[in-house]
Amino acid sequence: MSRTVSVTLVLLAALAMAGWAQDGILEVGIEWINVCSPCGNANLGCRDDVAVNFYNALVADGYVGRFNFGNEWAWERDFKEPWDSTWIDTVDIAMHADHGNSCRFAFGETSHEDCRLRATDGPRWGNLDLEWLILDDCSVLKPNFEWTCWEDAFRGLHLICSFGATAHDSCSRGTHFADKLIDGWTVVQAWFYAAEQTEGAGTIASVMGAGNSSDDPYNDHIWGHGSVCSDPYPATYYWCTFHHCN
Fold first, then answer.
1. What residue ranges do the domains of the chain occupy?
2. Fold annotation for 20-244
3. pTM for the complete prediction?
4. pLDDT digits (tens, 9 = 90+) for 56-88
5. Which of 16, 90, 141, 169 is disulfide-compatible with 206, CB 3.0–4.6 A?
6. Rounded distance, CA 239 to CA 230, Å?
7. Which of 179, 180, 126 is nearest to 151 (CA)?
8. DSSP code at position 23
9. Contact 105/39 with Cβ under 8 angstroms?
10. Given the DSSP bridges, would you call strands 116-118 and 104-106 parallel, antiparallel or unpaired?
11. 3-state helix, strand and coil shares in percent for the chain, rounded to the nearest 5
12. Could you give phi then psi for residue 207, rounded to 5 degrees?
């Protein structure tokens, strides 16, 4: 693996798909970390599976695979200004898979910024392209209004999908999620379904969104599989919805 951009060409026939991205290209990117110990976290076994299976399913559906960075190649600064304009904010949907906690998520190396991306680091997502950010990490969007720490990160971003409590290192969640997105389920529905299929009682799946008087992404589908609202920026309100797994 290297830091070169991985691009899969798509046929122009994909333009016939229902809905289309603002720049005319459907793009996905992922970053995942199994080797977490350099940053003081326990190593994991399925972060590559959840992210890469999600990525491969969307690429097979016609999305351009822009980047797939794992372990020491997954860098915190890819999610921060100004570097996000080269990476995370150049795709329509992105997934990060590692550890997380309230208002932060983790990485596995220290030489490209640090081991944690915190809401207080001032990320600005969606001012170029990103609509949906999937943080398959524990406790990033916690109830009792702890999720509000991410409000300033919404600069055109539609939704963040994550968890409001401890979640498990599921190998299959990315597949469940991608399959339902491609089947035409909304992003919210697909994320809660994927959580329900891979978690048990006590796990809380969360989705946060921004809205204004014209646009609210609660019923967003991914591009090519249903309706998508315009970028809800500037936002005049924020919301977070939770699903308690059974």
1. 20-244
2. Rossmann fold (3.40.50)
3. 0.93
4. 999 999 999 999 999 999 999 999 999 999 999
5. 141
6. 17
7. 126
8. T
9. no
10. antiparallel
11. 30, 25, 50
12. -135, 130
